[in-house]
Amino acid sequence: MKPKVAVHKFSSCDGCQLAFLNLGEDLLTLFEQVDVLHFAEAGPVDPGAAVDISFVEGSITTPDEVERIHAVRNNSKYVVTIGACAVAGGLQALRNLADSGEWMTAIYASPEYIARLDAVAPVSEYIKVDMELWGCPVNSRQLLATIGSLLAGVVPRTENDSVCLECKRKGQACVMVTRGVPCMGPVTRSGCGALCPGLDRGCYGCYGPCEKPPTEVLAHWFAGLGLTREQIAQRFLAFTPEAPAFYSAGRSRLPGDD
Amino acid sequence: MPDHSVATGFLAGHDFARLLSALAGQGYRCIGPTVRDGALVYDTLGGVEDLPTGVQISQGPGSFRVEFNQGTRHFDWANGPQALKPLLFTSREILWQVQRSADGELQFSQQDPEPVPTAVIGVRACDLAALRLQDRHFVEADVPDVGYTARRRRLFLVAVNCSRPADTCFCASTGDGPAATRGYDLVLDELDDGFIASAGSKRGNELLALLPLQPVSAEQRQAAAEATEGAVAMQHRQLPGRNLRDQLFANLDHPQWEVVATRCLSCGNCTSVCPTCFCYREVDQPALDRESARHYREWDSCFTQGHSYIHGFVVRPDTRLRYRQWLTHKLGGWHDQYGRSGCVGCGRCITWCPVGIDITEEVSAIAAVPT
User: Fold this and answer.
1) Within its chain, how far is the Cα of B241 from the centroid?
2) Contact criterion met (CB < 8 Å) for A151 and B299
3) What ipTM was assigned to the predicted interfaces of this complex?
């Protein structure tokens, strides 16, 4: 019997689901190998289906989503979270750092119709997660590696090196060393293929922290390159603000929070 | 110093293109340094015009800057981020594939490497010393590495003696430069109006026979010798000795390991640019259709968690232990494994460390000067 798969969406931009749709021919192979029971962006809709693997995109931001994510857990043998929102809050978790109630009354005519949680949280704050794929967005290669391994019955490999190793494997010259560009590569998790340094830009850190990221060492170096405390904070908090290592490095540098 | 028993001659600057065309005529793809992305990287050369001309490199801890002068020389700088390592010990390659046949049997196949014969122009003495060490590891092993060995056999090496070391260079202190003494097919001394070309192998001799060489004058010899002497004198960094094995292993609890760990990013840039570091990992990638899988090898680093993971726990969980592993292995353990230190003084780990950690300073703080 084919394994059953679901792709669920929570608070997110849908971009990580595109990593499935962008698989090309592999998408056809995937649909031959598994029964996709729920994947609204691709067609099949059956959110309550019991499956072997659920891929979850997005963070938990509303009371309704809390109920839904528990249902996903109960209906799934494995839960794999995909993307910065699901694993570490994502951009919308930036509201945890501000008075978002004030924003809401400033923007919406009738904010009382908006149901929301006090804080945006990664999926793992509510349920047990079996594997996390980091990235904003995740890419097709990561999905292929993970699904290929799961179908073969082996534990997928966790990628947690720094981006620097990928950058060097590709023969790219370090933008920090050649031009003094502040680059998050040394503290950021690999998986993207060192995309931004390959385009002559510093890494934005969208894949979140690597294993034991030396955030204070890099922050100190950024200060030497001329970044203000707030600019340094923004780099750590932009994509994965709820990842503990980046949260503490960024939060401690925000104004009024020494 | 040029060896007078082999062919030597002066190749005028305007005839330098003849060297590349002679190599191309013998079926070699020519690889050489080119300016790209603010660095000097090896790439395929279409002609002499692809080589840097009038380029100077300013290197320091964590800093590499390409500068242009009005000069006509092609090799008036020390080195870029890559040595020969990526050409031979490739950063990622498929070692084997497995396919399930119709009757369910697993069939393993190894991709037979058929590398293109490659000539590398501008190899430095430090790179040749590193190549010798990588050869020891990959070719002269009990089981020679198939891909590395095949690529190595098809390599033609045109060395250039260094006349302008970088601020980060210390090859004089490791005994590996600045002049190339062995391991090349040809070696060049670059002068303002051309090159003294000397053969180091039979193939090199044969190539020189194809070039319009003139006799080398005493003045030209003198200029080359002075350039090498100058390149020694310009180096101000050094390791405290060529064999630091005992001093390092006697200082495993030295407080400096902790100090350097507070500055180290553990990012692995040093090991990646090091021309002698050879650690790799192997990973499998099963295909979606469950009928095949590929087995890859890719560069690893002693600064990763996976490098010291042994069934259930990580032997070196923190930066202090990882940096110590790198340094004690390279400067200590290599003496037991390969009969010499693993450092050739190229200085790349100093330049390409994003936060400018200087191996010579760290070692000097940890290992007392040997008597």
Assistant:
1) 21
2) no
3) 0.94
Considering the domain boundaries, does residue B371 fall inside one? no
3-state helix, strand and coil shares in percent for chain A, rounded to the nearest 5: 45, 15, 45
CB within 8 Å: A178 and B318: no
User: Which tens digits make up the pLDDT trace of B276-294?
Assistant: 999 999 999 999 999 999 9
Per DSSP, the three-state class of B122 is strand
> Sign (positive/negative) of CA torsion B315, B318, B320, B325?
positive
Q: Which residue of A has its CA nearest to B300?
A: A165
CB A165 within 8 A of CB A188: no
How close is the nearest chain B Cα to the Cα of A87, in Å?
21
Q: B312-362 pLDDT, tens per residue?
A: 899 999 999 999 999 999 999 999 999 999 999 999 999 999 999 999 999
Nearest CB to A211; choose among B36, B300, B305: B305
This model's pTM is above 0.80: yes
Rounded (5°) CA angle B150-B152-B156: 125
- Residue type at position A155: V
Domains of chain A (ranges; CATH) run: 4-152 (3.40.50.700), 163-251 (no CATH)
Q: Across the interface, do B354 and A186 touch by the CB < 8 Å criterion?
A: yes
Interface test with B, best of A26, A157, A174, A215 (most B CBs within 10 A): A174
Query: Two tokens at B71?
Result: 């000069």
Torsion angle, CA of B338/B344/B347/B349, rounded to 10 degrees? -10
Domain of B281 in residue numbering reads as 245-366
| Last residue in a domain, options B209, B233, B257 | B233
Chain A hits for B301, CB-CB cut-off 8 Å, are 161, 165
Chain A: closest CA distance from residue B269 (Å): 6
Residue at B141: amino acid letter:
A
